Amino acid sequence: MHEQVISAEGLRKVFIARGASAGDGKIVAVDDISFMVSDGGSLAIVGESGSGKTTVARMLVGLTRPTAGRIVIAGQDRTKPCKRSSKRQARGRDIQIVFQDPYSSLDPRQTAAQSIEEVLKLHFSLSRADRADRVQRLAGQVGLDERQVGARPRALSGGQRQRVAIARALAAEPKALVLDESVASLDVSIQAQILNLLADIREQTRISYVFISHDLAVVRQVADHVLVMQHGRAVESGSTEQILGSPEHPYTKLLRSSVPGRGWKPARRNARQA
Amino acid sequence: MSMAGPTEIVTLPAVVRARRGRIDPLMVMCLLVIGAIVLVAILAPLVAPDNPDTINILSSNQGTSGSHLLGTDSLGRDLLSRLIWGARLSLLGPALIVVAATSLGTALAITTAWIGGAFDAAVARVLDILFAFPGLIFALLAVAMFGPGLWAPVVALAIAYLPYIARVLRSTALRERNLPYVSALYVGGLTSWRICWRHILPNIMPFVVVQAALSFGSALIDLSALSYLGLGIQPPKAEWGLMVSDGQSSILNGSPAESLYAGAMIVVVVVAFNLLADRLAASVHSRGSQR
Lengths: 274, 291
Description:
The complex is a heterodimer. Chain A is an alpha/beta fold. Chain A has 10 helices and 10 strands. Chain A has helices spanning 53-61, 85-94, 112-123, 128-141, 146-149, 158-171, 188-205, 216-222, 240-245, 250-257; strands spanning 4-16, 26-38, 42-46, 68-73, 76-77, 95-98, 176-180, 208-213, 225-230, 233-239. In chain A, α3 crosses α4 and α3 packs parallel to α6 (158-171). Chain A is globular and about 55 Å long. The N and C termini of chain A lie far apart (53 Å). The model of chain A has no long low-confidence stretch (mean pLDDT 87). Chain B has a domain at 97-291: MetI-like fold. Chain B has 10 helices and no strands. Chain B has helices spanning 25-42, 44-47, 79-115, 117-131, 135-146, 151-177, 180-188, 192-228, 240-251, 257-289. Chain B starts with 24 loop residues before the first helix and ends with a helix. Chains A and B meet through α2, β6, α3 and α6 of A and α7 and α8 of B.
């Protein structure tokens, strides 16, 4: 077995609804979630909307503070988010994130090259020429052509923007990348391109992925391991084949049967009797 | 006012929105009017036909003539020259207020939106207290303490305008701060300083400009009102608000020219700025929706 890049133990997040007095209005978004991601491994966290998977992603990258539990990334305790930029920078060297909405995850005033370059400037001391070289290489890695590299987000399509976001995340050369529904808002053919791209990148760089997704078809394509979440709890976990091939938990079965395919009939949870 | 987000539907009627890439004729007209008046104010010594302060009692309250294009006031001073020289003080005051209130307001807005929590709440309460003072009352107080002139009302009104600008821009900054790209920069390890001033500020700049343009009109009205009441710029200096009050006594004598012209100048500038702000807002919003 490889070294663990990410290990999360007993993660729990309780949100307290605004204006609620103590005791009531508590929402347990994530409840006792544990998982590990090995070096070069790929874990998918699946579940329906509101199952807490995005909260897990935000805790991993330090945008949300866990109520309880422990996060270790690349041997460093990263449980608590840090406001200090030096600490955030150190964490950024280990883990980066690509968000769902490609339309708002890039600064509209920065060209693709500028936003990639900004990350390079922050993490490495390179000469101007070396930096330009790196930008070109990262752009090539995610399949952006010269025009697209010099373009502002407005002039790019959703898929192209997501490539820019991936290149920007990779610029810090992190050990792990969190993809929070990163292909969900793209159409299916673009989705396939991005997924292939991500698979290639993993092969080349031995980077680890944490995929947050509701789409089992996506999961099947990219993940080695799957963690199924429902209402903040882990209901099932294991290798992708095992979970998708022969799910044991009824919720996983339901998720699987909800994937549209040939001869697919939507299963109604509260099916009325005829 | 609705702040158009990437997914938000713009609520302004489509009629007022200029299509992208097309020149908005009304906006151009406003800019031309404002530009012309500012230029004339700057070039006053060259443009004004007469010395604005030369008194000639023998030719008081004259109508339009070859030597005095717009006539003279009750002391026989050339009205056109006084209007031109008056533009300087009349525009300088509001400009100072707008620059001070907008820059401080923007800084406060971004800082509170970024830090959030108790700091945000505390600043909001302080702003609430400032809201309780109407601008003019605040200015009256300042004049009572520091004496009339340009500075006391300008400082007082700048403080009075600050909360309005800060509150509107805080919500804009907060919306920007919650966009995923800011989170991505934060996770990347950029300093808060850089995220705030190199990313959030440039992106809310169009809204800042709209607020500045909107405030200019009200600042001009408030300052003119103070000078009209004798609490702002003091005679014998030329200033539009002062000229309106100066010309009052002549109205009953059948020569309303001074009050009329000075009042008209105030109206023209205020309307130009308000229309400009409106057009800017419309274009900012339609641009926002195309992100």
